[in-house]
Amino acid sequence: MFRYRRRALASARALEQAVDSQLACVTRLPDEARRRSADHLAELITLAQAYRAYARGWISYRELENRGRIATARLSHLRSPHPAAAHLTERD
């Protein structure tokens, strides 16, 4: 097996292990925090799938880089604080 394939599979396993180690914690979180955490974990799994696809030769290194950038951008967006929705009220 080529070294790049072994490294890609090792990266995929590391991401999957990180997700597995956090799953039990997510179930104990309040609803909103659970949703945010689940979204983070889903992005990590998506990235792990990209590494596996690269290891199998299904996607190019360029595509792997692109998917990595997209996942990083999504994770950054999920981490950024979102202002609470303004309550719309009728003026008297």
Helix content: over 70%
Number of DSSP-assigned strands: 0
Q: Which descriptor suits the 3D outline?
A: elongated
Q: What's the average pLDDT?
A: 89
Structural class: mainly alpha
Count of folded domains: 1
Order of helices and strands: HHH
What is the compact description of this entry?
The protein has 92 residues and is mainly alpha-helical. The chain has helices at residues 3-26, 31-55, 61-79.
Please supply descriptive tags for the structure shown above:
mainly alpha, 92 residues
Structure commentary:
This protein is mainly α. 74% of the residues lie in helices and 0% in strands. The protein is elongated.
Layout of secondary structure:
Layout: H1 3-26, H2 31-55, H3 61-79
Helix pairs in contact: 1-2, 2-3
